[in-house]
Design brief:
InterPro entries: FAD-oxidoreductase/Apoptosis, FAD/NAD-bd_sf, FAD/NAD-binding_dom, FAD/NAD-linked_Rdtase_dimer_sf, Reductase_C
Distance between the termini: 57 Å
Shape: globular
Oligomer: single chain
Protein name: FAD-dependent oxidoreductase
Cofactor: FAD
Structural class: alpha/beta
Strand content: 25-35%
Organism: Streptomyces hintoniae
Radius of gyration: 22 Å
Mean pLDDT: 95
Domain Reductase C-terminal: 323-396
Largest sheet: 6 strands, mixed
Strand order of the largest sheet: 3-2-1-7-20-19
Length: 403
């Protein structure tokens, strides 16, 4: 009987398992995950869970009955430690060895940590797991002081939640304009304005030199910045990006470089596939390799790999339009495509001052991305279709306005 092993029990691993069963796979199926929880939704961690709007019981991606219906062996709270593609064997931390016919690598990412602050400290946080979110949530209260290191989307969402709870928030960002590397300077400035208007102390062009602590109690007391200033804090949230979980692949011979390197079919080697955050695959729609860290992408990716496992003779390229969203204050931010490395950005509808706009991004001679803030679905829909169709910049910018 064929045996498929998915290492990673989050959205990507679940989507692969569901896709296999839905498409008629009747072989053995094992899903390995290092967290104790069955698959759960991560985007709400920095939004509804951190704010207290949701209880943790709303996070599971599927009820237990649907997981049981997959007829899979779930090995939770169990880490994979090595893989041997030659013998097609995965080694686990508990000493078990799993033979496989197909291996799906869906191990996701982990937060980067501040150099020199790797040791556990009371009040020093990252935000990736349910436990991370609940720990930080328990400490957020009116009048407390939170420093958010990094003004990316996770940090910005946490800052917005903190202000909504009456927390005094300072956000520290080394770049002169937050998110400028991805969305452009003008739009990064506009999005930053929302934080300033809600009372966030935004410090740009400076970084954290060291975390200040009370050694007697192992408690964070603030941060010292590279500009020489200090910021007092009860809690420090580090949101400076992530690293793909590929250490367990060392020595396997599988190609790794900022993720598991995969071809256009999401294959890293014969019978080895990459799914979700950990996979850097070649997206033929955009003509470039990319690694996408978003929940919707992981689900779509898992289904595509399931299809290719079952259609090994005629695999299909995985060519999606990446999508993510962010909720900050009363702003709904949506982005489609690949915004990094763009050469031009143009506001197509609305205006930056009102924070209701749609912006289009050009790379080469084609439309490469769209970002919408506070815009209705009808305004975004034709642009998403243009991205999926691979429209040129001139074709896309001739689309009629929806307003």
């Amino acid at each position: 009987m064929m045996h498929t092993v998915a290492v990673g029990a989050s959205a990507g691993g679940l989507a692969t398992a569901e896709g296999l069963r839905r498409l008629g796979y009747d072989g053995a199926l094992t899903v390995v995950g290092d967290e104790a929880h069955p698959p759960y939704d991560r985007p709400p961690l920095s939004k509804q869970i951190l704010s207290g709007e949701w209880a943790p019981d709303r996070l599971p991606l599927r009820p237990p009955t649907e997981l049981r219906a997959l007829d899979a062996r779930w090995l939770l709270a169990t880490a994979a430690t090595a893989v041997d593609p030659g013998t097609r064997t995965v080694s686990l931390a508990d000493g078990e060895h799993l033979g496989y016919d197909h291996l799906v690598v869906a191990t996701g990412v982990r937060p980067r940590r501040l150099p020199g602050a790797e040791a556990p400290l009371d009040g020093l946080h990252t935000l990736r797991t349910l436990e991370d979110a609940l720990r930080l949530r328990s400490r957020l209260a009116p009048g407390r002081r939170l420093v958010v290191v990094g003004a990316g989307f996770i940090g910005a969402e946490a800052a917005a939640v903190g202000r909504g709870l009456g927390v005094r928030v300072t956000m520290v960002e080394p770049a002169p304009v937050p998110l400028a590397h991805a969305v452009g300077s003008a739009i990064g400035t506009a999005l930053s304005r929302a934080h300033l208007e809600h009372g966030v102390d935004l410090r740009t062009g400076t970084a954290v030199a060291r975390v200040l602590t009370d050694p007697a109690h192992g408690q964070v007391t603030g941060v010292e910045l590279t500009d020489g200033s200090t910021v007092e804090a009860d809690d420090v949230l580090v949101g400076i990006g992530s690293l793909p979980n590929t250490e367990w692949l060392e020595g396997s011979g599988l190609p790794v470089d900022d993720g598991l390197l995969c071809d256009r079919y999401s294959a890293a080697a014969p019978r080895v596939w990459g799914v979700g955050d950990v996979a850097r695959w070649f997206n033929p729609l955009f003509g470039r390799p990319m690694r996408v860290e978003h929940r919707a992408h992981a689900a779509e990716h898992g289904l595509a790999v399931a299809r290719n496992i079952l259609d090994a003779g005629t695999p299909r390229p995985f060519a999606p339009v990446p999508y993510f969203w962010s909720d900050q204050y009363d702003l709904k931010i949506q982005a489609y495509g690949y915004l990094r490395g763009h050469q031009q950005v143009a506001v197509i509808e609305g205006d930056l001052d009102s924070l209701h706009f749609l912006a289009a991004y050009r790379t080469g001679d084609r439309l490469s991305g769209v970002l919408a803030v506070g815009m209705p679905p009808r305004a975004v829909r034709p642009w998403r279709a243009a991205l999926a169709a691979g429209r040129t910049w001139s074709e896309a910018t001739s689309l009629p306005a929806t307003a």
